[in-house]
Amino acid sequence: MPLRQSARLLAATGALLLAAPVLTSCGFDYATDRDYTPGAGTNDRDALVDVLAAVVVSGQEGSGTFIASFANNKDDEEATVTGISGTVTKSPDDEGASTDLSFDSFSPITIPAGGLVNLADDDSGIVVTGDFAAGDFLDVTVTFGDGTSTDLEVPTYTNCGDYEGLDTSSDTPDPDQCTVETPDAETDH
């Protein structure tokens, strides 16, 4: 009888040891295994070229500058960005009307094999015009040299703070855009 109890105890202990990793794990798709890039721009990692921190910086209504970083995931071949297009969809108050955006023409942007190109460097941003203002989201399509493309919902920010000086679309930005009004302090307490 004691031998049977020992065998049962040994079998139960072995089964528990084998089940321990499954019972103590959190499962799959750990949060620490997923890409996370904190920032205000839009990121898209679905193509061979990652589009990172995409924003439009706008110093006045109707125009701005598209800024993003392009990271080439191919280590043995360069990639190119050949086109950018988009639309802006107004709020439901405007019956959801959608209008096209106009992006300035540009030479194809070459991204070296395994490299990165940041449009904020050397005033390389692409000027965009249309019916939008800071605070709007723009539907932007980036087309690559291999014929693929990626769709992004890109936020529009004022030409202030971290984005100050990145809008090359106009020499005369709205001077009140970066002014924050504060309520008058009461002197009586």
How would you explain this protein's 3D organization?
- It is elongated, with a radius of gyration of 26 Å.
- Strand 2 and strand 3 form a beta hairpin.
- It contains one helix and eleven strands.
- The model has no long low-confidence stretch (mean pLDDT 83).
- The chain folds into two domains: 30 residues, no CATH class; 125 residues, Immunoglobulin-like.
- The relative contact order is 0.20.
- With 189 residues, it is mainly beta.
- The termini are far apart.
- Strands 1, 2, 3, 4, 5, 6, 7, 8, 9, 10 and 11 form an eleven-stranded mixed β-sheet that branches.
- Please state the second-level CATH architecture of the largest domain: Sandwich
CATH topology of the largest domain: Immunoglobulin-like
Which CATH top level class of the largest domain fits?
A: Mainly Beta
Name the average pLDDT: 83
**Total helical segments:** 1
| Unreliable spans | none
CATH-wise, what's the superfamily of the largest domain?
PCu(A)C copper chaperone
Task: Describe the sheet with the most strands.
Answer: 11 strands, mixed
Strand percentage: 35-45%
Along the chain, the helix and strand elements come as HEEEEEEEEEEE
Radius of gyration: 26 Å
- Give the tally of β-strands: 11
Please state the oligomeric state of the protein chains shown.
single chain
Write the layout of secondary structure elements.
Layout: H1 2-24, E1 42-44, E2 49-60, E3 63-72, E4 79-89, E5 98-100, E6 102-103, E7 109-111, E8 116-118, E9 126-129, E10 137-144, E11 149-158
Parallel strand pairs: 2-11
Antiparallel strand pairs: 1-2, 2-3, 3-8, 3-9, 4-5, 4-7, 4-10, 6-9, 10-11
